[in-house]
Prior knowledge:
By secondary structure, the protein is mainly alpha-helical. It has three domains: 42 residues; 90 residues, Type II secretion system (T2SS), domain F (Receptor-associated Protein, Up-down Bundle); 252 residues, no CATH class. The protein has 16 helices and three strands. It has a three-stranded antiparallel beta sheet, covered by helices on one side. About 3% of the residues have low confidence.
Amino acid sequence: MPTYAYTARDMTGKIINGSIEAANEREVAALLGEKSLFPSKVAPAGNASGRSLFGKRKTVKGQVMATFYGQLASLLRSGVPMIRSLNVLGEQATDPVLGEIIRDIRSRVEDGEGIGVSMARYPGVFSDMAVNMVRAGTEGGFLEDALERVSTFTELQEDLKGRTISALAYPVFLFSVGSVVITGLLVFFVPKFDTMFDRLRQKGEMPWYTETLLAFSTILQSYGWLILLALAGLAVFLKMQLASDKGKELVDRTKLRVPVLGDILMNLAVARFCRVLGTLLGNGVPILKSLEISRSAAANRLLSQSIANATENIRGGESLAMPLRTSGYFPPSVVEMISVGEESNSLEKVLPEIADSLEKRTFRRLDLFVRLLEPMMLLVMAFFVLAVVLALLVPVLKSSTSL
Length: 403
């Protein structure tokens, strides 16, 4: 039998590299699953490049996934066997990508592979939280409940994402339109006034701000394409730099320092962490594994590092609340509620309540921030347009009075 090299995580989130003999990659995944290992890469031994076990990453909309989890839970609760349930959902799937994935999972389940192992093959579709909750539900005999909770959680996250995008859509639209209008004025409208002001320029009566505006307009008109190429190159360079670990950490740190918006983003990240951790603990996933998954769900490296420190505290038999308090990223009220939840052994119930409360408060602040942002952007646009008009109007008035 061929030998395969693999990279996997154990129940505590520790990365493990090794090799194993198996007939194919499917058997490797099954053998690792029996050892409570979650594979991320599998490749024939000796293949230096390595190939992802999951192949090309595919994605499906979150709302579609929430519907899938809910329907699968309903079918299983009604007594429909797993393979038949997957067959029904695969046939009626409106998303072609999801339909293909469900059919592949069904065939693997028919061959004896666990549904959690099959789902883990598609990390772009099934999140770590969903995979681990399904694994816990399968092993603990509460798969239907686990799927329903995943469905509810996914719907809440999609609602949160949708509300955030809709709140910021209009300010982004205003900024885009304003940028196009001002650029159009500078490139097509302002240059027509250049020859009109030659007389004032000869007399030395040309206002400095008008001269600056005309010079900037000439640069845009003559070298606009070079500026666009330079900006595109800068964007590519920044994208490459920000893709590194240091770049991502810098972005996360910068986002949190933005006045008002930084607090909003941090509170949303904390709420996301609390909801994922509470959902996992409520479905029987061990706390160390739950912290590892919820750490990545926070989507902020600074917060993630604080959670990693808390994980080390848990391994040492200490509390979760203390390192979260010392990190400075968690609001004191949240830390106190977590501490109370630990003391009363009801952390899995307290954490979703924290998430609900934080999201409500944060969305009130986000709504207020957006309401203030819209008139501010209108004022900024009006200021630039007025500056252009005045820079052109003052010399015209001077020319008319000097005649």
